[in-house]
Amino acid sequence: MLLKVWPNYYSEYFLKKLKSTNLDLIFLPNKFNSMRDGYEIQNDGHPTAKANEEIAEILYNHINKKEK
Questions:
Q1: With bands split at pLDDT 50, 70 and 90, how would you rate the model's confidence at 2?
Q2: Helix (H) or strand (E) holding 48
Q3: Residues near 52 by Cβ (< 8 Å), separated by ≥ 6?
Q4: What CA dihedral angle connects 52, 3, 43 and 41, to 10 degrees?
């Protein structure tokens, strides 16, 4: 199972528990928490198209690295 982890969204306790599992984790860079840089929809908090494109690339690269 693959799990994306948004920066600054979960508590340290929860992250520690996640890291102790056998889950395949991807920790997204802190830039994804920034409305100023165009990664969050203003007054909504959801990712923008720009963020989704970059996340898709991160996932693609991660999956391809695992298959090699």
A1: low
A2: none
A3: none
A4: -10
Amino acid at 33: N
What pLDDT sits at residue 60? Answer: 93
Q: What φ, ψ does residue 11 adopt, rounded to 5°?
A: -75, 160
How far is Cα 33 from Cα 46, in angstroms, rounded to an integer? 10
Q: What angle do CA 21, 15, 25 make, to 5 degrees?
A: 55
Count the alpha carbons within 13 Å of 39 in the hemisphere toward its beta carbon: 13
Amino acid at 1: M
Q: What is the reported pLDDT for 35?
A: 63
Tell me the one-letter amino acid at 62. Answer: H
Task: For residue 55, give the nearest of 11, 3, 19, 9 by alpha carbon.
Answer: 3
